[in-house]
Structure to design on (258 residues):
């Protein structure tokens, strides 16, 4: 009979990723397999569900799923039209993809914390974290992708020279370029940093609270767990919305020339 883990061991076990490295101790090239599996899987589910709605779309009375997809598309499209002041066919699909994909990954936090790890343990998998957005590697991958697009459009729309002048001439004028440039770099690099840490911090804290609730006796868990789950739904929706909105705002700023 195996000894029950202590609360510390229980928490540490649930916060461990299933990892793979090409060589022992090769930390830089370590892959978090569970993060990759769930993020890619949920991305494919998003694509398949929306493709299914597009294939079955009708001009008559829409079904429930078509109505749901249309509401999300119209919602995101209206936000893009209100916030984004440039012209691009990429922004609205990108914003919709970011919102729905992050929303699906966040919603994994509402699955009971022991359910999938126990199934994985029965299959011989020692560790399993099911919420991809509690992995800092994934949130930084998302934010860096947005940051690359922001830099790309800054150069494409404004031109390399105009973009360079913005970095060196604001806010104190061209005479203060040695001061302006470091400040501009801090301002630009704070964008992916804030995007990644905000999403990671909120979801990591939510996951940790669910784990702490799971340490309570089973006959007590339903009350604090239910209350926290209801509140956490707001966090899940809000964090996906904030990431999408900041992406739209940053790309809109990249399209504006001063």
């Amino acid at each position: 009979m195996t000894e029950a883990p202590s609360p510390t061991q229980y928490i540490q076990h649930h916060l461990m990723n299933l990892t793979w490295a090409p060589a022992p101790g090769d930390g830089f090239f370590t892959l978090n397999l569970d993060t990759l599996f769930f993020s890619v899987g949920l991305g494919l589910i998003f694509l398949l569900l929306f493709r299914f709605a597009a294939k079955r779309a009708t001009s008559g009375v829409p079904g429930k799923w078509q109505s749901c997809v249309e509401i999300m598309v119209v919602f995101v499209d209206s936000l893009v039209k209100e916030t984004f002041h440039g012209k691009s066919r990429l922004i609205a699909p990108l914003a919709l993809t970011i919102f729905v994909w992050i929303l699906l990954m966040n919603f994994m936090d509402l699955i009971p914390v022991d359910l999938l790890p126990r199934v994985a343990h029965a299959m011989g998998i020692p560790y399993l974290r099911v919420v991809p957005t509690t992995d800092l590697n994934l949130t930084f991958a998302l934010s860096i992708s947005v940051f690359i697009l922001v830099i790309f459009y800054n150069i494409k729309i404004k031109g390399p020279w105009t973009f360079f002048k913005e970095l060196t001439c604001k806010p104190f004028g061209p005479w203060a370029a040695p001061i302006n440039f470091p400040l501009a770099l801090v301002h630009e690099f704070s964008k992916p940093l804030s995007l990644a840490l905000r999403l990671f911090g909120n979801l990591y804290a939510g996951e940790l609270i669910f784990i702490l609730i799971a340490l309570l006796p089973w006959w007590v868990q339903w009350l604090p767990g239910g209350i926290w789950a209801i509140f956490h739904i707001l966090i899940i929706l809000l964090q996906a919305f904030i990431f999408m909105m900041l992406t739209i705002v940053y790309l809109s700023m990249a399209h504006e020339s001063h």
